[in-house]
Each structure stands twice: as structure tokens, then as C-alpha cells.
Amino acid sequence: MTNPLDVDRSERVQEVRDRAAIVRRETVRLVGIAGSGHYSSVFSCAELMGALYSGVMRIAEDPEWPERDRLILSKGHVAIGLYPLLAERGYFPEDWLDSYTRLGSPLGDHPDMRLIPGVDFSSGSLGHGLSVGVGMAQAARMRGYDETRVWVLLGDQELNEGQVWEAAGSASHFGLGNVVAIVDANQMGLDGMVEETMPVEPIGGRFEAFGWEVTEIDGHDPEAILDAAAALPPATGDKPQCIVARTVKGKGVSYMELSRTWHIGYLTPEDSAAATKEIDQRG
Amino acid sequence: MAEVERTGADAGIEVAPTPGKGSWDLAGMAQLSQSFVAGKVLAAMADEDPDIVVITADMKFSNMTVDFERVHPERFVNVGISEQHMVSMAAGMASVGMKPYIGAFAPFVGLLAGEQIRTDLAYPGLPVRILAHHAGIAIGFYGTSHHATEDLGLMRSIANMTVVCPCDATATEAALRQTADLPGPVYFRLGRGRDEDVYSGRPEDWRFGEAAVLREGGDLTIVGNGITVAPALVAAERLAAEGVESTVIDAHTVRPFDGPGATIAEHAGRSGRLLVAEEHNVVGGVASACAEALVEHGLAGVKLARIGMPADEYSLIGPPTHLYGHYGMDADGIEAKARELLAN
Q1: Average pLDDT of B3-28?
Q2: Would you give the DSSP letter of residue A108?
């Protein structure tokens, strides 16, 4: 006999895969509308974002529910991958996606909390997000939202920013077990490999030195992501949590993977068609 | 009580809230100087408003937010020396419904964390209040790293920002209370706190958003804010002894500037001469705002003279009062510049 929990679990794993495919497919489509976009940075965190919106985050129909979990895209340039998930949840009409980056659209390359239901903070300037998350986590405690978690998605090259470490030190000092930093360690920045431009390893070691509890996972494995989320101690704990997700920039479209030339910009109709075809096959 | 309070604080002796009461007995204290009032006023405001939080960056004895901590320790946060983090963190708190007041030396919050203020507070329009104290050249001999003579220029050009520069303790309390419900961020530009009283006998004259006319006369208009207001009144008094009548205006609300009544433009237009004195570079601050207002009102013919840090200079080293004298920001300097302007 099959354990019903295993069925639930395999369904959830499939949900994550499906949402990751939506994120990649829609990103390719929206880059086509904008004529430019940060597609390969989205591809590295497609499973992570898919998982967050497949039962990992505690959110409700009302995107303004005060006790909801918060998500800060500290690497704000992956907003293009978030928008389809917010539309899927019904936070805004699907046809908003078609206006992506066009004059007066609520949807820009970086997310705006005042214009987009479901966006918890306006981001884009790298290095700020963990500080914002620390503030949200403190406020959640002051207001008695004991189950609320604050999820902060950071890039690995972003960890060069000094403010990240101001925030990291304060999160452990303030005992904020309701903060979860997810590092999308996709190995690349704008100019090339993180290791060459300005290294950040050991990422886990650095966070541990700042008093965090660290888990390392394969960031493209839905089961590993769901397991790591399920293994988090209660939000009332006193140690901030870091998930170092080992990923590949451009993941899911073979010609983009770990390629510096495929980071941002325009995709020709042929590029897009090839990318979409591969996403559909793998998805 | 009043004497003990002032002496005690100056001597670094711990003073405590009134026994048996939740907060500080503000009414029972004599006029405090500016630097000793903010923490106490915020503590009193927080008695009524459970959302108020106070944050500082290893400076609770410089801005005396320790007075808030003594009353509301559960709503006081010290982030250590990390002003940029403090600003972004306060933004996160505000997004969840708190009302953070954050305090640090003006150069390290208004300049160092300028991008965080613009991007995390002003762009989303979050109600975080910045206590930027020891602004201008108030820390004198600490040198240029500790001066902020450009912050008004920066803050004045940020959309959604409110900028207030109260000149004494009464004005500081009024500013804190009258802006409490504004939806967006506020930058309070404060001095080092050894200010002379301007408003203690006339607190009703300080109204957020309206330039305060403290004296009226038709020959000359003198505009100041912060530490130049009290000496401007002294200079006007001296000129009046010779029959020269000046209007003295406290331009305490720098953004939005000059309010719906266009008080400054109206007086300057009438007198034809405008002297602006400020503890800021002559570029980008109150003088610039006045010049913009004059031109917009078709008053480009008004003669304008500026007292402030010269456009291409950083301050000399020296005790603050000596520097104010050197740069003409004291009563003698304002009087001399006024005579020059009147002679032209």
C-alpha cells in the first residue's frame, strides 16, 4: 500500500517542477516583450521560487494578510520570474504580464511593492534585502506574529556587498530564528565567475561565523528544497537560518548554462524558440 | 527638577524618568536643549502609540535616545555601527506596520546611508523618521568626516521626502509631534543641542510646513534655520537700533519648502533684499531653495546674499562656535553681511 504522505509529497515535488517550468517559460516570453531581461539569473532559482509558492511560504488569498510570510527578492532582478507565480495565485490579472516593462506598467525589471499585490518589498539595489528582512522579522516579533517567517533570496556575487554582513551579524545578535536567507549560489555575476571576479566562499562558513545555522542543498532538486524547508526549526527559534542552494546560472537551457554571454539582454525569436522547446522537454 | 535635569545630563550623571510614572515628565522640566529632548518626547509619544520603535547605531548617548530605552526597552534597538543596515532594517519594520525613529550623526546617516534612504524609505514611501543630529559643522574640530554640509541638498532632491530643521527643543518637540502621522519618511536635521531658545515662549509659532515669521520689517528679509535663527534675531535687533527694520524667518520646513502661503517669497519680494544664513554649503540648501522660489514667483530682481560654507571649501578645524564666527553664521557675521547687502 502506498503511504498517502508519499503521494502528497510526490504531488508537491511535481508542483515545484511545474512552477519552475512556468517561471522559465514565462521569463523567456516576457524577455521577448521587454526586449531585454535577466533570464539566466531566474533560471538558477526557478525551483527555489517554485517551491516557495508550493506550500513552503505561509501565505493566503489576501496578499496583505498581516501574519503572512514575507519574501524579499534581494536579488531583485529575478522579479520577471516572480510575476508569473503571483499572477498564478490570482494576486493580479494574468494580462498584466503582457505589459511587462511597457510604459506605465506596474511590472518592471525590479519589483515595486506599491504597484504589485504580493510583492512584500521593493528591491533592486543589491545588498539591502537581508537588512530589510531583519527589520521585518523584528517587527513580526514585536507584533506577536510568532509563526511568520521572512525569506530573503540573495545572489552569491551579491554577498560582496558589505551591508549583507551588517545584517547577518545583527540577525544572530537579535536571535531572529524567523529569518531564512536563501543564497542562490549560481556561481556567476555580471562579469563572469564569482570565483574570479570576487570570491565569496565559503558561503556557509561565512554565515556560520556570523552565528547562523546553515544547510547546503542542490538548489535544482525540488525534494532537497522541500526537505530543507520542512527541517527548519520553528520560527520562534533564536538562530537565523541560511540555505545555501548550489545552482547553475542559466539552468534548464543548455546553451545558457554557466555562460557569461547569456546573462541579460535580448533573445532573438530563434533563441527564444530553442529555449522554450528545451524547457518544455525538461519540464 | 529642571536644574537637576540639565546639570545631570551635562555632567553625564544618570537621570531617571519620574518615579511612579511611565514616562518623562516633560511639562515639569524646564527648557531642555535640543539634544536632550528627542528621546524623552519619543518616549512620551510611544506611551500613546504602540507602533513607535527607536533605533540607533551605537549613539544612544550622543542623541540621548537612551532616554527612550529607559522607558521602552522592548522597543529600542541598537544596531551598532552600521547606519546603512539601520536604514534598510527600519524600512523592513515600517513595512510590517511599525513607526521607526532612527538616530545617528548626520554625516553617517544622511550622507553615508543616502542611497538606502532614497531607495528603501522614500521610494516606497515608508514612515521612517531620521534623527540626523550634529548636522552641519556642529562637531567642529572632529573634521570634515564628521561634518554634514551637503545633506539638505541631497535630501531636498529626494521624492516623497520631508525635511525639517528645528532650531531648538520646543521646535524639535513640535516637529516630532506634528509629523507623527505623515505617511512617508522624514529627515530631522538636528544640531548638537547647545541651542539658544527661540520658541520656548511662543511654541504656537512653530507650525510644520509653514515658514515662521519671527519678526517683521520692510528693509530686509533674513532667512535662517537651525543654529542661524537665534543669531539672525540678534542681528535684526542691532540693525533695528539704527532704524533698519528686518523680517526674520525660520525656514524650518525645507521640504516641502515655503508652504502654500509662499511666506518667504512674499516677504523677500516686498523688501527686495534677501539674506539667507545656513549651516550648510551655500549650494543645494535653503539658499538654493529660496532662489528657486523667488524665480518661480517672478521675483528674480530680489538681491540675494548667502551665508554658509563657501561652495568649494570644507570647514577649517575649530570649536563649533569659533567656526560659526569664522564663516559668518553668528550674529556678528549675519549683521555684517546684512549691512553689505543693504549698501548695495
Answers
A1: 51
A2: -
Ordered strands of the B212-215 beta sheet: B212-215, B246-250, B220-224, B273-281, B303-309
The second-level CATH assignment, the architecture, of A4-282 is 3-Layer(aba) Sandwich (3.40)
Here the ipTM equals: 0.96
Give the model's pLDDT for residue B10: 43
Q: Which of residues 144-163 of A touch B (CB under 8 A)?
A: 145, 150, 163
Confidence of residue B28 (pLDDT cuts 50, 70, 90): low
Q: Which of residues 22-81 of A touch B (CB under 8 A)?
A: 66, 70, 72
pLDDT at B21: 56
Contact call for A124 and B119, based on CB within 8 A: yes
In the CATH hierarchy, which fold is given to the domain comprising B209-343? Rossmann fold (3.40.50)
Tell me if residue B229 falls in helix, strand or coil: helix
pLDDT number for residue B169 = 92
The segments of chain A whose pLDDT lies below 50 read none
pLDDT above 50 (res B11): no
* Segment holding B164, helix H or strand E: strand B162-164
User: Could you tell me where the DSSP H helices lie in A64-220?
Assistant: 79-88, 129-142, 162-173, 194-197, 203-209
Check whether B19 has a pLDDT greater than 50.
Answer: no
- Which residue of B49, B86, B88, B101 is the best one to mutate when testing the A interface, meaning the one whose CB has the most A CBs within 10 A? B88
Residue ranges per domain, chain B?
Answer: 2-189, 209-343
What residues are paired with A72 via a beta bridge? Answer: A152
Average pLDDT of B163-177?
96
Using CB atoms, pick whichever of A120, A131, A134 lies closest to residue B95: A120
* Residues 163 through 202 of chain A touching chain B, CB cutoff 8 Å: 163, 166-167, 169-170, 174
Q: Do A135 and B80 touch (CB under 8 A)?
A: no
Q: Which residue of B has its CA nearest to A113?
A: B124
Whole-angstrom distance, CA of residue B277 vs CA of residue B229 = 8
**pLDDT score of B1:** 31
Hey, where are the domains in chain A? 4-282
| Interchain proximity B95–A125, CB inside 8 Å | no
Sheet holding B253-255, edge to edge: B76-78, B52-56, B99-105, B129-133, B186-189, B162-164, B253-255
User: For residue B279, what are the contacts with CB-CB under 8 A and spacing of at least 6?
Assistant: B135, B136, B137, B138, B149, B191, B226, B227, B228, B308, B309, B324, B329
Query: Which is nearest to B275 in space by CA: B198, B335, B217?
Result: B335
CA-to-CA distance for B53 and B123, rounded, in angstroms?
Answer: 21
Q: How far is B151 from chain A (nearest CA, A)?
A: 21
Q: What is the mean pLDDT of residues B194-216?
A: 93
Q: Which of A139, A145, A174 sits opposite B92 (nearest CB)?
A: A139
What is the average pLDDT across B135-140? 94
> For the structural domain made of B2-189, what CATH number should be given?
3.40.50.970
Grid coordinates in use for A21? 517550468
A140 touches chain B (CB under 8 A): yes
Using CB atoms, pick whichever of A121, A128, A131 lies closest to residue B95. A121
Chain A contacts in chain B segment 47-86 (CB below 8 A): 53, 74-75, 77, 79-80, 82, 84-85
Q: Is the model's pTM score more than 0.80?
A: yes
Over the stretch A73-125, which tens digit does the pLDDT of each residue have?
999 999 999 999 999 999 999 999 999 999 999 999 999 999 999 999 999 99
